[in-house]
Amino acid sequence: MSDASSLGATTNDDGSTAMSMAAAGQPVLELKGIGKQFGAIRALQSVDLSIAAGEVVGLMGDNGAGKSTLVRIIAGNFPPSQGTIHFGGREVHFHRPMDSRSVGIEVVYQDLALANNLTAAANVFLGRELKRNFGPLVLLDHKGMEARALELFRELRSETRPNDLVKDMSGGQRQAVAIARTRLSNARLVMMDEPTAAISVRQVEQVLSLIHRLKEQGIAVMLISHRMPDIFAVCDRVVVMRRGEKKADKPVGETSPEEVTALITGAKEAA
To answer: Which residue of 38, 92, 191, 226 has the lowest C-beta tally within 10 Å?
Structure first.
């Protein structure tokens, strides 16, 4: 049984569950002393991290720094070896991704996991389709899904249309579809893995605008990226990982790309 049922989870109109949030000012997510070992390999060592509602935190580090391991622990792919996770002011234990999603955590992975042959609306509702009963028949509610997808795209101020095929979309539009999907479950925290990798400058601006929309709606965002300009353009804080340890956690206004680069490479030990 998922821990969500015992942690004050509530049911939304669309049938999903979301964690009732703690008092204002308390972190949405708080990690305390998180460690992870895979046999003799120590992937994470005593990581503390918090993120508040409406805050955008950039997570940076070289390959092997521990970013992916940390994200997968938060997403429920595997449990930490040490430490605790608090969400909405309550300690939680995730045994699978469904547990993490049930309390309000969504992940937009780099590959987006979209079906190219389907429309934007169909992708938004993939696995969560709306249905209508006609006596003994149960049919998909295509009009209802298209109407709701249109509302979500308008909230995100995206030009994406519900009936557009994903295979014909730009990188920015694909990100809009993936982010709209997270809004179905009233996510409290959205983690985005390299959302601006391998897309044009114009599409990067579209993705950063989408992150701003989430922030305006009070949603916490964790941006995992190697792109320094994106971090300094949209994030409130930057967290730097190296060799499984957190080396810095600073407001972007109190650091610089040069300092962050030094922390990533080890030219500077900590900040």
So the answer is: 38
pLDDT digits (tens, 9 = 90+) for 10-36: 334 433 333 344 444 569 999 999 999
Write the DSSP string, the chain.
--GGGGTTEEE-TTS-EEEPP-STTS-SEEEEEEEEEETTEEEEEEEEEEE-TT-EEEEE--TTSSHHHHHHHHTTSS--SEEEEEETTEEE--SSHHHHHHHTEEEE-TTTT--TTSBHHHHHTTTS--EEEETTEEEE-HHHHHHHHHHHHHHTT----TT-BGGG--HHHHHHHHHHHHHTTT-SEEEEESTTTT--HHHHHHHHHHHHHHHHTT-EEEEE-S-HHHHHHH-SEEEEEETTEEEEEEEGGG--HHHHHHHHHTSS---
pTM (two decimals): 0.84
pLDDT tens per residue, range 139-177: 999 999 999 999 999 988 888 999 999 999 988 899 999
CATH code, 55 = 3.40.50.300
Q: Say how many domains are in the chain.
A: 1
- Domain of 167 in residue numbering reads as 3-265
